[in-house]
Design brief:
The strands form three sheets. Strands 1-2-6-3-7-8-9-12 form an eight-stranded mixed β-sheet, with helices on both faces. Strands 4-5 form a two-stranded antiparallel sheet. It is globular. The protein has nine helices and twelve strands. By secondary structure, it is of the alpha/beta class. The protein has a domain at about 150-390: Alpha/Beta hydrolase fold, catalytic domain (Rossmann fold), CATH 3.40.50. α7 (about 280-290) links the parallel β7 (about 275-280) and β8 (about 295-300). The chain has helices at about 10-20, 65-95, 115-135, 135-145, 190-210, 250-270, 280-290, 310-315, 375-385, and strands at about 155, 165-170, 175-180, 215, 220, 225-230, 275-280, 295-300, 320-325, 335-340, 345, 360. The protein starts with 8 loop residues before the first helix and ends in a 9-residue tail after the last helix. α6 (about 250-270) crosses α7 (about 280-290).
Length: about 400
């Protein structure tokens, strides 16, 4: 870039020297005179301030959003490659498992619970038979376990990944109900681990109830009747998939969850206290469903975010709880969100941050899959929330 400024005297001298005609070849150059001082080149005087070159522009600040988008580009690329390679290969290697259509049942009532349980066990047994005939022994075994006489399903659908809503406890007489909403990779094949968490919670509810007689937020001689519902009522995203990065599955699932809670009231009545215990991607589902949801408490555990920036943004009258285990890898997920190509990627604020405004409770040293582990701090606190023993909940 050429700098233009007012030439100084030294500058004019230099310019004159540069523009002088060259010496004739026939004229030998004059002999240099010896001098005790070294020859110093003539330097132009500093230019005026206006002629100074502009300093290089500083790079833009590295905000959390920018850092997230940089990481996101790599994550999305990896997920797209996985989806483009793994999913088609898996689909080709394992065709869709055949299964009967779900049993046609009206919304349940106290009087029709046994009818629903019987119909759904029969449906699971038929799904197991069809899966076995298809050669899928894993699905056949999972369906067969669900057809056992001791199992109580409000709904069952063996098609695709599979859907199931199971009751543990006496729902007909329950006045405190916990609804568990699972996260990614929960299917009929992996349903056993989800149910194990629900069973551990029901056992803990019973043991705390017998020990303390919890009822509401105070000790009472009246024993509460509890039930736990394992709600696999939506098609969960895979952990390694593009869908797990977006709110799409949660937006589809939220109306299903809200409808289920409305139908649940037809069984337990308006006075029963309903708590939602939402895990991992399930917290995104609960965040999308929170507005207008007829629940007293919503607990967000191992959450990547809900899609909302605060409790107020959830627009719910439910009391919001949040917890994260010390060894939960979800802490490494950036808590921001961005709209890319018409899709929301990321899930916003961290529910355990003070700015979010939830009641943060202790979850111990467990990892992402340990919140319902028997004997854990998190399981004890979740049971206390369900029982209404909020003064007994240990805070983080």
């Amino acid at each position: 870039m050429e700098l233009r400024g007012k030439p100084t005297a030294a500058g004019r001298a230099t310019q004159a020297t540069q523009t002088a005609p060259p010496l004739e070849p026939s004229s030998p150059p004059p002999e240099p005179k010896e001098s005790s001082e070294p020859v110093r080149p003539v330097r132009p005087a500093p230019s005026a301030p206006s002629a100074q070159p502009a300093p290089p522009a500083e790079p833009p600040p590295s905000t959390p959003r920018i850092r997230f988008l940089r990481r996101l580009s790599r994550t999305v690329l990896a997920a797209l490659v996985t989806a483009a390679v793994v999913v088609p290969v898996s689909a080709a290697a394992r065709p869709r498992v055949p299964a009967p259509a779900p049993a046609a049942l009206a919304p349940p009532t106290t009087a029709t619970l046994d009818e629903a349980y019987t119909a759904n066990r029969a449906n699971a047994a038929e799904a197991s038979r069809m899966a076995a005939a298809h050669g899928d022994r894993t699905r056949a075994a999972a369906d067969r376990a669900m057809a056992a006489p001791s199992r109580h399903f409000l709904s069952f659908d063996g098609r695709g990944q599979g859907l199931a809503v199971e009751v543990l406890g006496d729902l007909a007489h329950a006045d405190r109900v916990a609804v568990l909403v699972p996260g990614s990779d929960t299917t009929l094949e992996t349903y056993g681990r989800f149910r194990a968490g629900a069973a551990a919670l029901q056992d803990r509810l019973n043991s705390l109830d017998r020990r303390h007689g919890f009822h509401g937020s105070h000790v009472s001689t009246a024993r509460p009747h509890t039930a736990v519902i394992a709600w696999l009522g939506y098609e969960t995203p895979g952990t390694v998939s593009t869908t797990v990065l977006t709110t799409g599955r949660a937006e589809d699932a939220a109306p299903q969850l809200k409808r289920f809670i409305r139908e649940l009231r037809g069984v337990v009545g308006e006075k029963a206290h309903v708590s939602l215990l939402c895990h991992s991607y399930g917290t995104v589902v609960c965040g999308r469903a929170a507005h207008g949801l007829d629940a007293g408490d919503i607990a967000l555990i191992g959450s990547p975010g809900t899609g909302a920036d605060s409790v107020a943004a959830l627009r719910t009258s439910a009391r919001i709880w949040a917890a994260r285990g010390a060894d939960d890898w979800i802490v490494n997920v950036p808590h921001v969100h961005a709209d890319l190509f018409g899709t929301t990627v990321g899930f916003g604020a961290d529910p355990v941050s003070p700015a979010f405004g939830a009641h943060v409770f202790a979850a111990g040293t467990g990892g992402h899959s340990d919140y319902f582990k028997p004997g854990s701090v998190s399981l004890d606190n979740l049971a206390r929330i369900v029982l209404g023993a909020t003064s007994e909940v240990t805070r983080a």
